[in-house]
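Example 4.3 (complexes with small molecules)
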Amino acid sequence: MERISWDQYFMSQSQLLALRSTCERLAVGATIVREKRVIAGGYNGSVSGSVHCIDEGCKVIDGHCVRTIHAEINAILQCAKFGVPTEGAEIYVTHFPCLNCTKTIIQSGIKKIYYAHDYKNHPYAIELLKESGVEFEQVELDYLHIDTNTKDKMYFISTLLQRLEDKGMDNEELKQLKQEANQLFMNVE
Ligand SMILES: [Zn+2]
Ligand SMILES: [Zn+2]
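Answer. The structure with zinc ion bound is encoded below.
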């Protein structure tokens, strides 16, 4: 088995954290790393002890859910709460940080942002990152490392699709199924 890279390892951790999210709008996870060690993690959710969006619905004001604290801020606050320096650290986030999180990340002394998915990448956030010298780099999750039988699943699905084609399935219908299969295995070789 191929050894997982640090980038994939930390991004997978953020992806797992995202599964803890309590907001239905978007599930985000963030992992703060220093010297190849995880020092904090967070996901987007309500203030501790408050109601969850998944139970009561989102609290939307001006098109945004205002109930949640974003994953990046939660991770940074975890450092604040327990007295762990963020200076010189790196952060792995599942989605490109919003403007507020970008400002908070820069101000916390974090030096590099790794993100898996583009998400409304704000031009001013990018401007601020460039200005402050905080690097940002996209790291796409390679699910082959996490889901150990992805290759078998892909093979199975492509065999099924081939059989449907051989049986003379309607072209449009087949095209649709192929598209759906491709979407399922997006970011996989
Ligand atoms: Zn919400
Ligand atoms: Zn944010």
